[in-house]
Amino acid sequence: MYGAGVAYITILDKNGDEGIGSCFHIGDNVFITARHVVENCTIKEIGTTVHQRRLFETEDTHSSGMVKVSLDYTPKTTCNFKGPYFHPDEKIDIAALIIEDLNCPTLLLGDHLDDWLGDEFLLSNAIIMGYPIIPFSSHPILVVSKCEINAIVDKYTGGHPHFILSTMARGGFSGGAVISENGFVLGIAVESLISNHQPTELGYTSVMSVEAIYNCISHHRIVPKSIDLRWDGFWNKE
Q1: What confidence tens digit (pLDDT) does each residue in 112-121 have?
Q2: pTM value?
Q3: How far apart (Å, rounded) are the C-alpha atoms in residues 130 and 235?
Q4: Which residue of 134, 192, 225, 226 has the lowest C-beta tally within 10 Å?
């Protein structure tokens, strides 16, 4: 349902070294990623890697069980995009891109705003999807990992609440989507919480909750129609 909606971003840093991050589609060609993936970098390529069928019901679907199948979602790469559009607070690790060349399913953002969050997600199941580097792989591969929510943290450095996942942190997951067992996006993978400059893999996988995404697209007036309808125009108000 979601794989073809998650893309990789290959970048060149200021030293010319290549890196990789992730992004995901939230509607109307708007893709969300982590700010640090694209800031002060040259975006070399953005692409998807998953073949995914699209199912359409017909008039007799309920009686026959038959549906039409389309193979619209096929892997594609592009270097055409608009943005990045950064969150207005430079400390918030969120950015958006508009990528019209990629045909992707839409990932549904959750409606759990910061003030509404309690402990209801603790020990619930989720998946994280992104493009960490796999040694010896000749091309980017979507990595999907099952996990559970172990904690919710308000960092003393400020910002939005972060979910702590049970899965191992890996470079390249940054900007990837974390999807609840109920089928909506819990948040975006932004960092590995480490101390004393330890390796990324020894930290906690930290996922920023969705309100930061809403604030970013609202600030830049790039709210997809599906979100505008679901929220009755809330994110397009001054």
Answers
A1: 999 888 888 9
A2: 0.88
A3: 27
A4: 225
